[in-house]
Amino acid sequence: MSVVSHLMTFNKQFVEEKQYESYLTDKFPDKKLVILTCMDTRLVELLPRALNLRNGDAKIIKNAGAILTQPFGSAMRSILVAIYELGATEVLVIGHHGCGMTNLDTKAMVNKFRDRGVSDTTLSTLEHSGIRMERFLRGFQSPEEGVMHSINIIRNHPLIPADIQVHGFVMHPDTGAMDLLVEDYRGSNE
Hints:
- This protein has helices at 3-16, 43-50, 74-84, 106-115, 120-128, 133-136, 143-155; strands at 33-37, 58-62, 90-96, 165-171, 178-182.
- By secondary structure, the chain is α/β, with parallel strands linked by helices.
- The chain has a domain at 34-104 and 139-173: 3-Layer(aba) Sandwich (Beta-carbonic Anhydrase, Chain A), CATH 3.40.1050.
- It is globular.
């Protein structure tokens, strides 16, 4: 049986048994948080539990390395929607130790594209269209550097209101321990 078949079989049972009822909430984050974090599988359940977040408490955006590669990309759009449409008032950028984006070798990854059938013509067309692989596949030297990069893009974004607080953390993916990099309560009474 395929992975999709297993998922669909479980899903049917989940709905029939009304297991979803314990997850019911609305679309507005109860704690008014939007979190930009990494897509690492170790964080899926660990991060919310390590922060005592329940379903409905925060908007969680997952992106490789918690990196914003451009100020007008889809992850930044999601942060803006969370703030302007869904009432988030604070942004948490959470990277983690042992991230695959640390020292990412762009050239090696481009070679993997080739190995999987992406032609040099396609890669050349992308380069000539302004897609620079070293920027598109940007990694970082340390998770702290990656978190600070994203914080700087968010803080300096022309569409982010001045009253939005942006905090930075690095998580230990084995224990859930959080290292606080930036606690940003500029101009607030906190």
